[in-house]
Amino acid sequence: MQIIAFCKMPAFYCKKSIIFLTGLLTMQHRPKDKGTCTAYKEELAAAICNCRSGALKKLFLIMNFTATFLLVCCLQVSAALYSQTVSFSGKQVALKDVFSAIRQQTGYTVAANARLLNTAGPVTVEARNEPLPQFLTRLLSGRSLQYEIINKTILLSEKPGAPPVSVREKQAAEQLPALMEVRGRVTDSSGVPLAGASVKIKSTTAGVTTNSNGEFVINAKETDILVISYIGYRAIELPANSKALGMITLLPVENQLDDLVVVGYGTQRRKDVTGAISQIKPRDLNMVATPSVAQMLLGTASGVTVQQLSAQPGGGISIYIRGQASTGAGNSPLWVVDGFPLSDGDAEPGSGNRYSYGSRNPLNTLNPYDIESIEVLKDAAATAIYGSRAGNGVIVVTTKKGKSGKPAVTYNFSQSVQEITRNFDVLNATEYMQTANEAAYERWLFDNAIFPYGNTIPENAKIPYQQRYTDAQVAHAGEGTDWLKLVTRKGDIQQHNISITGGSEYTKYAVTGNYFNQHGVVKNSDFKRYSVRTNIEQKLSNIFNTGLNLTLSQVDNRNASLGDNLWENSSILTNAIQFPPIYPVYDAEGNYLINPVYSPMANPVSMLEIADNTITKRVLGTVFLEARIGEGLKANVNFGLDNQLGKRNQYLPKTMIYGLSVNGDAQISTSEKFDKKLTATLNYAKKLKKEHSVDALAGYEYTNFDATGFNAGAKDFFTDILLYNDLGAGSAITRTAGSYRAPSNELASYFTRLNYSFADKYYLGITGRYDGSSKFGANNKWAFFPSASFKWRAIAEPFLEASQALSDLALRISWGQAGNQNIGQNAFSYYSSGYSYAFGTPGKILPGVTLSQLDNPDLKWETSTTINLGLDFGLFKNRLTGSVEVYKKTVDGLLSARALPSWYPVGSVADNIGSTQDKGIEITLDSKNFTGPFKWNTHFTLSHFKDTWRNRNENVILQPYEHKNDPLRPAWTYLFDGILQIGEEPPYAQPLLLPGQEKIKDVNNDGKIDINDLALAGTTDPTVTLGLGNTLEFKNFDINLFFTGMFGRNAVEDANWSRWGVGVIDMINQGYNLMSDVQKRWVHDRPGTIMYSGTPSVYQTSNKNFWFNGNFVRCRNITLGYRLPAVKKVFSSCRLFADVNNAFIITKYPYMDPETNTRAGYPNQRSYSLGVDISF
Length: 1176
Hints:
One of its GO terms (cellular component) is cell outer membrane. By secondary structure, the protein is mainly beta.
């Protein structure tokens, strides 16, 4: 408010002034008391007598004209004044606050002596659309103040006869208690200062906010009560003279019912939410030694299953919500970052030649330290607002924003070292030679039908036995070459993060920078990220707000070969396991040694010569303009973009077998994704009367998806030195180049949501979205996805309000539909290029295109329909809170390929085939076990689900062992029934079985072993997942322990056996090394019951040695922290911590890791970290 202070001036001493006379005639400034009025008249008469008669006539003529003019002006001013209305409501508010509201509503400025306002005392006033003069008269009634309006200025002055200001100040000072300066500091339970916390004097409007260090200074009376509050924390009240003000600790809101939860295109109070939503805060996440947001969701939210596909730096993560009910369109949830829905995948180019770098996580470009909250939307009531892309659930990520106050700087640093937790256990040189000799002898006995494989005596053998390695060679073999050790190392991670936040009433900003650098435990596997994010919000006026959220990031990967194929085109780890330990790294000439028995197997160390690097750059941003049109009504326009550019450079040198065969091979690939979206929404939120609340949303959204790519390559280089930096150095006839542009996809959407509540007891939610996509057939480009939900807060009922044990109870029910369109860029790319055909002149090959897909005008989205029942509860003043969800989801119109009678040029067509079903239950519990000086909190999540078929493709003929309602990803096997021992009679169904070979159970008792005897061994999907977190605090110390578990995944394939374990005899003879467990196999002079001999059998074998129980409980991390006392002018908060990530695992799984890909996959690591979090 603009206040002009001025001194009181005498108003009536211009005796001969025309202005004075005009003012007299228009009755302005006329004195009220009689004495002053008499003096006023005498002065006026004297002035008139001093004027000449002619001048007097002229004067009166001017006065007459002036009076008429002023009368008209007054009428106009009066009309303008009464058109200005004021609405205000306040109790015991300062007078200057009232005039500030007047200025904001009317534009009228107040001019007054500052002391007049300071001594006026508080007022209590109510007004609704009241004319300004009438409001001012009521406002100043009974006070020693009067007002006058001149133009757009309200002049305040003392009423005649009022005591001087100095007297009133003295009187007020004698009546009021003395003010004192109160200082304090506000922090959270961890000692982190809360900048921007509110400190107010109770029952007044007087207050301040804390600075970046959480400190405040306020003038208060000794008898005042201070109210300290902060969003998301429980407010407390303390006397102004309390010693506890020196260090005030605010605790999070216990029941969090008034906390805001991010939903689709908006927010809601937690108690207003009718859908199934889990919220995750940064305090629930472990930022240390974790490059990806996705990895942090492990075990933190019920219903969310996270599997680490590869433990490599930045490795792939599989996330799904409430099972994997889709069989052909993917099961990944929709990620929404600051309102921008991300499309599937990333722009990182795939393999340009023989070698793959394994799986990658497309969310690696996001900085976990930027996160303010993560909401997981699970049922259709929560997801239907996202329509055709929400069938697999939605994960909403909200990043941090600026806050009013002085700049606050936070710096986070951590340094980690990593080691392999469980490596592949392979044979050393001595064991290899012994096993090779045993295998060769066993095969000689078998081939010659010598006991126990027949009745032939050794002397009659067709070929005499020849020992592969002499006893002397075995005795001197030692450990040999440890190929795994040569291609692995100790890993390390270093991370820096800095954030600056601050702002004013009109501008708020947040800027963060992140640097993450990881050297993996496999050589040549490195990950580096640079990230900068800016968030700015600007209040343009009382109506308009605007803002920008922009993230720039770059990820550099140095790739180790982690392919899934055989021989040289496989993983560096596969070759390190398979390459025999009896051979050295280099031959006699100093070149990489080639396996003399099986040359296609790559020398593992030679694979370190591969130069393979990828760079991914990303720009992710949104900009918005918001207008508050009226009370409760606001409009928002939001534009966003996600631009990803990936580049891969690769060179295969001549030191490798394949590189040597082509004299060097260089490949350069680039790809780009460019997604754009425009969203416009109109939101109306209003509390009607006392018990009715309405929140309505309507919106439109348009999204465009583009993807392009380019690749070039060359072979036959004269030197390896240039790598991929000069393709021109390769042979001209080997140079290649190509490009592509995926068909542009568009998605247009109309959506709406209506939430209604009555008495904070009954809640109703309705949403609908109408989507149109260019991906689908002409007859089904548009589809509608509705939902409805209801919630009853039973705790608000009178019959439960008096409950001592029950502090919260609410029941929810919802129904709705959402879609799935994850079928690639476009279902109608009818033709593909890159094909050639001979035309005309014999032998002349011409380029062309070929038909690659058929049009299906009826192709549409997968549609998931979900019914959800939920129970929210709190016990013992919310010492124990939780929720239980029971749901059933059906997916109809599965997107898949329908086989056609022909095979060329197109053998299938995209279609909607079959349906699946997913049932499950989710439990979330939070308990505050101890709340005194020693605090102990527990967070527990448990999820159980089962995916099954409902209806299958009508063209699919079920096998005899299959059933209509089988799991979606079953594991079928012949049942192991033991190992045939020497002298034992073969089973009736396997009359030709030999000793050492496995017996198979005849399931249907038909006297033979065939596919009718296959049985369900389990599923590769876990059916139960859990998370358990404990946080303990005492004084400045805190300890966090977090466990995750996965159960029901009792059919985990271990490809180690299928490649180099079971067929021990043949694999040794082919030059492969083996896992050390092959020493447990059955041998004629050392018979066993665990592993069969590996001799060729005429019968089917079981998968006993291929599939294992994958249940586990993992200690995900242990963190110990200590918070240093604040040091003024140095730091406001400083926490030192030590962390162990992947501390230990409890499992019966015998090999690498039951969670990661076991096909010679990247080994899991244990990380030891030290770090500091400091605020200035």
